[in-house]
Amino acid sequence: MSRLLLCICVLLFSSVAWSKPQQFYVGVLANWGHQQAVERWTPMMEYLNEHVPDAEFHVYPGNFKALNLAMELGQIQFIITNPGQYLYLSNQYPLSWLATMRSKRHDGTTSAIGSAIIVRADSDYRTLYDLKGKVVAASDPHALGGYQATVGLMHSLGMDPDTFFGETKFLGFPLDPLLYQVRDGNVDAAITPLCTLEDMVARGVLKSSDFRVLNPSRPDGVECQCSTTLYPNWSFAATESVSTELSKEITQALLELPSDSPAAIKAQLTGWTSPISQLAVIKLFKELHVKTPDSSRWEAVKKWLEENRHWGILSVLVFIIATLYHLWIEYRFHQKSSSLIESERQLKQQAVALERLQSASIVGEIGAGLAHEINQPIAAITSYSEGGIMRLQGKEQADTDSCIELLEKIHKQSTRAGEVVHRIRGLLKRREAVMVDVNILTLVEESISLLRLELARREIQINTQIKGEPFFITADRVGLLQVLINLIKNSLDAIAESDNARSGKINIELDFKEYQVNVSIIDNGPGLAMDSDTLMATFYTTKMDGLGLGLAICREVISNHDGHFLLSNRDDGVLGCVATLNLKKRGSEVPIEV
């Protein structure tokens, strides 16, 4: 039962979540302030909520700039505004008219946007020509009824609005301050939308007798005085993010809005009708040569520079100084880089010279072993050659097969002596790494053979253990041999300085994994007195006659093989050191596992 109840609750919660209506925001031009716009249009949103299922609409009030920005950021999906702003926005975003407003005034006409040029009743201004060189106020340069309609009138009269007025102040919204500025004498005239003066008189904040409209006219059916031609009323538009089905539902709901509906009364309209032609506004904009958004921004920049010339000059100076400083930094950086490159080159040359000294030092230490290795083949060659001479000097005819056998033995021993010399020359000669397929077991045996006499002299045992199936690796044979000899020689020296000098042991373990081989050289010396990184630092040594290059060279060689080199103390309870080399299998691309 409890599980059944839980399932029912989940289903109910899911159904509630799924049925949550989609949220939409309708941008509204707030001529009289945000609060008045919200109060005016909220009932219209509630009407749409009732007639459009699965959708919830909200008022988003703002001026021209705020609505443009909201459209750019995708914060609104619909907009109720005048045709002027619609045409301005349509140059940037795909918009479509859904319906045009039928005004509550003027017998429900769809052409109710125009401008009234208002001056004080006691002023000397009788015509628009009297305002030449005067100060006027308007709401916004993009307001069709608040400014652009007047500019169209001035163009038809041969006036240039950019130079005709002495100054044009754009005060924004709400519209009340426009007429307050005229009343208080701060401006000579105000360019206001149609019926602004009548609305303020109706609210009791102004007296109609204190003001006068220039170039007055009152078209048939229009209740307010107008100075310009009338243009199409506000319309309801949708962005391209709105689906066709939703646009159709909204349009139908708007067209069916009754004139006595609370939404219509509060919005001050008698209903909506099909979108009417915007040809009159398009012609006006064409006459005004309305600039594109890009050019408008550039003009705004130019205007700002003209009004703030001192800041512009300061900005240019700061830019020049910053550029010069940047060039100076680049020059200094180039100098430092060249110096660092030269220092690095010198350090590499010194490292090469020191590495040669290290190689010579290693050869000197294994000199006794070299003499022992060479003496053996030389003694064998001498013995075999003397035996051959004695046979040839005998009275009986020499046996050809036995002579050939002696010569083959002599050749084998001479070859062995040559290989020993070749190995030592390879250790002495600094050359570029030559990567070839190498048997690591052979390199370990050669390293031990070169140090065998030293091991015997110090009575140190050395053992080799192999785990897994051996395979070849790709390596620099001479470089890797030098590393093995260096590490074994370090173990020899460490054991000689410890209490186990007469019972020293070195174990070499080779663990062949799937993609790598781990070589461990383990001794029973005194162990490490400090961390691995310090010991492997260049020029650091614990020996009286050491150069401090051995372990650093070992690390560099193993790094060139894409391998890993580590020094550590033994962890099996026995005092001593472990040198571990991790090397990749031939052809392997798998990273080394430590």
TrEMBL record:
Top-rank EC class of the record's enzyme: transferase
Signal peptide region: 1-19
EC number: 2.7.13.3
Limits of the Histidine kinase domain: 369-587
GO molecular function, one term: ATP binding
UniProt entry tagged with the keyword Cytoplasm: no
Manganese as UniProt keyword: no
CDD domains referenced in this protein's UniProt entry, alphabetically: HisKA
Name used for this protein in its record: histidine kinase
